Fold this sequence. Notes:
Blueprint: H1 2-26, H2 31-53, H3 68-92, H4 110-197, H5 219-244, H6 249-283, H7 305-317, H8 324-338, H9 340-344, H10 351-368, E1 375-377, E2 388-390, E3 402-407, E4 409-411, E5 418-420, E6 422-426
Parallel strand pairs: 2-6
Antiparallel strand pairs: 1-4, 3-6, 4-5
Helix pairs in contact: 1-2, 1-3, 3-4, 5-6, 5-10, 6-8, 6-10, 8-10
Amino acid sequence: MAESKKKDLLADAKNFCDGLSNVFMLKKRDPQTRHLLEKAKLLIENLISENQRATSNVTSTPRGSRSAGGMGQLWVKLDELKRENEELRKHAGKPVDDRPSIPPKPSQGPGDVIIADLHKTKRENEALKAKLEKLETKIKEMDSVALSVQDEYKRAKVALETTQRSMETVLKDYRHMEDDLKLAKKESESLKQKLAKTMLPIGRTDNRLAENISEKCRPSNIAQLYNTLESQEWVDAKETLEEITDFEEEDIVQFLCACVMASFQSCKEVYNALKATIAELIRKPTLVVNDTLVGERNGKSKLPDDMTDIIGHQLRQHFDDIDSDVIVGMMCEKLTLEFTEFVQRHPHENKVVQKFMNRCAKVTWQMVIQHPPMWLSVDDHEFDDEKHKLWWSCDQAAANRIDFFVWPALYDYKRGNLLMKGCVFAS
């Protein structure tokens, strides 16, 4: 009876060993499984060899009596779980053979190792399933975000196409406007040329409304000349008078300012005399043969407005032909009463001072022949920062009353718009 049991046990062991060999052939790519199969096969072969050599009864372990069929079912179950584990790992994006090879403990048998591996595989399987569910949820969220982004992209694309069409329309309109502007400029230039060629002005010309840019002699250009007169010829004349005379600086600057005003008054007299003479000639043409023609101005005659405009236009065309020496002579006569000592020394004979006086005559003549005439003023008595600038030696904080003008203020007409501030000495 004992021999029969031993033979059955040896047969079971051989069958189990053969089953392990078959499983080994199937699972040879898995390092952990290969290790377990090799260990189990070695143990069974050692047990068989010990039973063949031993003469005494060998006590078998409770687990050794398990049939090869029961162990095969465990191997099949383990194989299914591992395949499922591998599929989950593929879905999770992890490599299949990333688990470390853990050798079995020496005290455990092959069945215990297989059962432990089975439980471990189940746990990994559950963890991978949970991770897979999270990934699927995240993929769904990403899909919804992608759909919203696609919708937004479609809307943005439609808006961009609409904007491009609008921009093309605007560009076309802009090109049409450019063409219209060029055409308008050409028409404007042609009209300006026609107006410049017209000798008789249409209606009354008034520089308070608009300047005639075809005329060189116009208020804006005159203001620039007046500024240059102050910054160049006036400075040279002042320095020269300081060198050739022993007068104080205050007396010199007052004299130069008086020169400008005397030139302005003289030019007005010449212009008014010209208009009165022409008016008298029209009334009495035979006076042209009379040498006392200039004296025949009794104020009874006055030129019509349209004729005054024509004369002013012609004078502005030939403004540079004025004989400035005659006006300088008139200036000296006016200055004799107030600046007798200066005039007695004949400052106009000095080349620098003479240049200043002649420039004053030419610039103020251009002021007078405007319509209406421009205006120089030295009539203010109270300092006003908007109309006056202080002489360098004055105290800005204490400036109140104007003692004298160093340089007259320039207006586009009497009581009109200020073009240049007057320089004053104020205390």
